[in-house]
Every structure is written in structure tokens, then in C-alpha cells.
Amino acid sequence: MSGYRIERHPILSPEPAETVAFTWKGRPCAARKGETIASALFANGERIFSFHHKDHAPQGIFCANGQCAQCLVLADGLPVKACMEQVHPGLRVEPVDGLPELPKTGAAASSRSIDEIRVPVLIIGGGPAGLSAAIELGKRGVKALLIDDKHRLGGKLVLQTHRFFGSYDAVYAGTRGIDIATKLETELRTYPSVEIWLESAALAVFSDKRIGVLRAGTRYVQVRPEIVLVTSGAREKSLAFTGNTLPGVYGAGAFQTLVNRDLVRAAERLFIIGGGNVGLIAGYHALQAGISVVGLVEALPECSGYKVHKDKLARFGVPLYTSHTILSANGGDQVESVTIARLENWKPVPGSEQSFACDTILIAIGLDPVDEFFVKAKEFGLTTYAAGDAEEIAEASAAIFSGKIRGLEIARDLGRDVGTISPEWYTTADILKSKPGATVSEAVPAAETGVFPVLHCVQEIPCDPCTTVCPRNLIHIQAADIRGLPAFEVADPAKACTGCEKCVTICPGLAISLVDYRKDAEFPSVTLPFEFLRERVEVGDRLTVLDTLGAELGSVEVTGVRAIKANDRTILVKVKAPKAIAKRIAGLRAQAGDVGKPMERFVRRTADDTIVCRCERVTAGEIRVLIRQGERDINQIKAVTRACMGACGAKTCTALIHRLFREEGVADADVVDQPKRPLFMEVSLGTFAGIENGREGNNGRY
Prior knowledge:
CATH class of the domain at 115-234 and 369-433: Alpha Beta
Low-confidence stretches: 693-702
CATH architecture of the domain at 115-234 and 369-433: 3-Layer(bba) Sandwich
Structural class: alpha/beta
């Protein structure tokens, strides 16, 4: 890779930042102020962070969310998660090679009593659900403490540069996730009854109804709340395949963190595994950052994400392989290529293998709730609520609305007068959580006069911004709620479409074009949304236009480009097209067609290194042997192999081990699961004893 920083972006605004000097393996490097070690290393061209003590396998970033320990490095001699730790001036960073030595407690170490803090409400997680709930509590003067383990609020909203789906009035639909995060945080900070602790992690829930919290990474306290609201979000599912732990294989959320939050150009050539919304959106974000997307595979016959997201990638020139799976990630110390194959009856078809050159493979096969806080708090008898992905995996718009409802419910439980929570609110929450509905064939409008929008949205999803912004109310939903398909209808010719372009601009799926026959009926103009760098298109250029499914329609001339503030960073490109194709045009090609060309020969890699437990490097083969010998207790598998005993707390491998049981024909009911760990993340034992070592330069963190 070259050019590791993103200097220009169509949506984000990279600005000069104060630099901080640090060293990596003794080499002077520079980071942006406030940047994590992981992002700083990527920005300096480093992808291998450590070497596993068991087999010296290279390791790099995986989740970038503090949920695993793949990015472990030595910072000033002590092991830390590179994705969570910020760089400070003079920091010495080294790779972990073997087992790190335990830190020594020097003469400066001292212990203290553990503070106990009582609060009416503790909110664990400052993402969309937690922020929304805290706002409702703040409006009513309820004292609450909101904690989040990141250095800024917003959760995954701060990674989302695209416009959101959902309800325009209820959850900011049509607004970009990064802007929603700012709106929510700005409003929350106007309510003094809500205290906010950043870089503060909930460590454990105890049977005496206390919750251990590491505040600002330095001070252990115990919080005793009357009510707990768990809004801790979700973690990405993992996938076992050959080469799955090579540096360069990581989650889509980690990729978005590097690219959209920290403005690091994390890849040159990207391949995506998984056709849900997370994978499809990550592909779009990669294209916006100037990264080539070589392809995307989905095991199902159709992508499970919104069709407008899938169609958008197809129009932009990304090859999509449904009914396919990954066979292996290939390379020496890091990813160099990926091998995929077609599936029939869920088995790879011999002879269908293809390999593609790439340096990064994103795993985007779904999410699991981070609900251990909720489960344990309920077990110990705390009054506990959950919202957002910690309750049920859904879109961020659903998390925002469920957070609002939980905030009102908690305020009511505390005796505040909140009135009656409308049943319609619960109905709206269910609508926002709903999965994609029916898909219909696109119907091309018959009209060839005047000006009108063409709605390329053909799947039932909860979304209504286009109906809200039309000044003449010409777009409406063809159903009882916002999950219906939008339709354009003119009842009064005197109030026909004026061509204001607002619907084109606000559509989250970039699924509306505007066709105008008023000046030239044979070569009408077509206005299209464009969310890439402005200099990529100029008046007079000839560009390839495509239909909804990504099929090329021809080359047309650009006759206008509008990049105005009112359009919120969406550029409107106007092209002149023959009337035979005008109404079918849905987008412009964004990357060259040869980007996704496979290698001449596929790369075959042996299957004996498929890792199930990343922390302890336990392979699928080792576990299969025990299952075939009759083992049904994961505790016994754990004792023999050390699977589930690593730093991540079995968050990644447990689901994969259950999958191995199913593949071996063992029913879930016959499997004995291991008990959940009492601590939800790693922390030094000295922390619980109140030991403070007084080290400077790291906010006392080490």
C-alpha cells in the first residue's frame, strides 16, 4: 500500500491535525493527536502487530472494538489492545513476540479504598440507543450515569457516512450517521442530570448488585444503580476458514473504524465476505475512500441486506457472487489473495474455485448482541432493561427509537410523570426492526413528457424520506406503514413535479433519478446522485451509465454538476441520454470493470490450519477429533485444547465450536456449554485492589 492517510473524502472533511511522535520497534513514527495505536500503525504502513506465542503466527487487527485481543502490542513495555489505547507523545510501541511478562509493581505502587457510587440509572453504552434513552431521562431531570469504553460518543454512528433509512420524523431518516451522532450528543450534553464517563468500561456485574467500572482506564469504582439499561451494541460474528487469522482478515466494523473514523486508507484491494447490510455498506464506504472492491461473496442465493445497497454496489462495478463461499485467505505473513467457490447444497463445487488478488478480506456475516451485562444483571435481580442491538439485532434507526422508549419506561419506573407511552411508539419500533419484505420487478414509467422522478426502489423496507421532502406531496407510500414501496403520482397537472431534485438528494439508497423531457424529448436529461470526489466528474465527460442491476446501458455526456451546501455533500450529476435508455438509468460506474477480474489460476491452500479459537490457536481439526470421540461438553474440550480460554473470553470461538458440533451431526440440546466468565473484559488484578502505580504520560492507564 502507499498513501496510508485519506487526505480527501467526498463526505468527510479531513483537516490538518496535531501530530504526536512515537516509535514502533524503535523507528520514529507520527500519529494524529487522539489516534489509537492500531490506526497509527496502519497509517504508518504496519499491519502485523504481534506474533502468537504458540506457533509464532503473525497477528493484526480483527475487531477494533476491544472485544478480542488480536491487536495486542507492548506500549512502554506493557501489553495493551492497540485498538483501544491512544498514542501519547514519546510512546514506545513494540510487537508482542511470545508471552508478555507480567508488569512489576514498583515502590511507587499504592492501594486505595474502592469508591462506591450510587445512581438511579446506569446506562452501559453510548451508541444510538444509549444516547436516545439518556436524552429522554435528561429531559425529565432523572439523574443517570452513561458510560462508554470509547473516547467519543455515538457508537457505530460515528462510522456511518451514508444517509439512514427509517422514519424521517422519528429517527432522522435521510441524515448521515455521523451527523446523527453529533445531534444526539449535542442534545444530551444540554441536560445536566446525565453524567458521562468516556473511556470507561463495565467489567463485571456482581451478585450484590454492584457493577464494576474502570473509569477513564485508570480508576476502578463500583456503581450501585437502581436501574440498569444495557445498550452495549453488538459484536461481529467470526467465520472459520483456512487462513482466517492472517493479518488483513478482519471485521467490517474494524474497516469502517479505520477508514471513516480515523481516516486511514486501510486497503488497496478489498474483498468482502457477507451480503448483509454491513458488508454492502462497507463496500460502498471503501469505494468512497478510493479503495478498489474486488468482489463480494454471499452464501445465500440472494444478498440478505437491502436491495438498494446491493444494487448500488452492482452499479458501481463491484462483482457480487451469490451462492458462493470463501475457501481460504492466502499469503505468507499477511493476505495476498482470496479463493472462493460456488455452493450447491451448501457444499463447495469442485472446479468452481476462483482466486482474486487482494490485501484485505472483510468478514461481514452478521452480528451477535453484547448482552452479557443484561443476562448477568437479570440473574442477580437488578431491575434491568436492554435496547438497541443488545436487545435485538436491527438497524441503527431501530436502536434510536428503542432507546427513546426505554428512557420513558425507566423514567416512569422512577416515578416521573411521562404520561401514556403511545402504543404507536411500540408499533413504530417493530416496524423499524423489520427485515426486508417483498421485492418486485422494476416498473419503468410510461410517461415521456415533462419532468418526474424514477423510483428504482423495488423492495419493501422501512423508509420514508422521499415522501417527506417532496414540496408538492407527489410521492407516497403504497401501504399502511413506511415499509411499503414509494410511488409517484400527479393528481392535478397544475401541481406537477417541478424538478426540485430534493427526492434525488435525500434518498438513502441513491435509488431515485430525475428525468426531464422539457428541453429535448429525444435526448432528455437525467439527474443522478453522486457521492464521490467532485473532481471525478466534469461537464463534457462521457461516462458509463448502468441500470438498477448494474447492466451497462451506454456512454452518455455530462451536461451539469451541482455540488451545493443544501445537498449535504451529495453531488447531482446531470447527463444527456437517448430516450430509449433515459428512464432506466440508475447510476454511474464508479470503478473499472477489470478490478474484479480473477487470477489466472486459483490458489489452493491446505485446510489443516483453519483456526477456531484465535486466542489459543486451536484448530477445527483438533476439536473435531474430540467430538468424534464422543465429547459433548465444551468444558472438556476447553480443558484438553485450551479453546475458549483466551483473552477474548470465548466471545469469538464459542459460536464456532457449536457450529462444529452441528456439522458433526450433534444436536444443540446434546451439547453442554461452558459457564460464562464473571469478567467481561481483561483487567489487571491490581485494578480490583485499587492499586495505582502513578505512571505518567498514559493518564495513569498502565
